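Hello,

Following up on my earlier ticket. Below are the two sequence lines again, exactly as submitted.
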Amino acid sequence: GENVEQHPSTLSVQEGDSAVIKCTYSDSASNYFPWYKQELGKRPQLIIDIRSNVGEKKDQRIAVTLNKTAKHFSLHITETQPEDSAVYFCAATHNSGGSNYKLTFGKGTLLTVNP
Amino acid sequence: DAGITQSPRYKITETGRQVTLMCHQTWSHSYMFWYRQDLGHGLRLIYYSAAADITDKGEVPDGYVVSRSKTENFPLTLESATRSQTSVYFCAIKPTGGRNTEAFFGQGTRLTVV
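Thanks for your patience. The regenerated structure is below:
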C-alpha cells in the first residue's frame, strides 16, 4: 500500500518568513495530493491540492509543488501569519474510476508562527 | 459543517465495554471513511466503505467493526474497548465523479477508555 513520509514534524518560523513542508510517497499510481490544515481541537480542512498532471499550484500565499519522478511534493507558505499556526497534513491517493479513494496521510507538521 | 455529523463528540468508557461511534451525512456520497488520530501517528485509516453494504479494512482495523446498511450512516463499533483505543476518531466523506475530489471530515469524537 501507499506510504507517506512528512518532514519536519515541527517547524517554528517568525511572522513574515516562509515555511516549507515536504512529503514523499511510495506508490507511483497515486495521482492526487491534498494538504489539510488542522487547528487545535478542530477537524482537518483542505487548504490546497494538486493532481499528478500538474507540477505546481498556487492559491494566494500557499503553493504546492509536485515532482512525480522523485515522488515528492511540498507545501510552501509565504509571508506567514500567526493564524497559519496549526498542524498540516499531506496525503496521497489514487483517484480514478474503480479506485477506493482512500487517503494515506503523513504524520503531520506542527507549524508555529511567532509574532 | 459540510453535511457530516459525528456523535457523540466526547465519550468516556471502561475497558471491555462495547461502544459505537456514529457518523451521518446529509448528502448521499458513496465513500465514507473512519480515521483515528494519535499524536505521532497522524491520521490512520480504520475502515472505509464504497457504498451501502460494501466495507473494507484500512491500515488499523483490529478491534473495530463497521456496518453500512444505509448510505447516509457509517457507525464504528469497538466491540471490547481497550486503553490503546483512546483516540480522536474522525469520519470523512468523499464525493465521487467530476472534478471534486475533496474529502470532508466530521468534527471528530474524542474517546477515552479507562
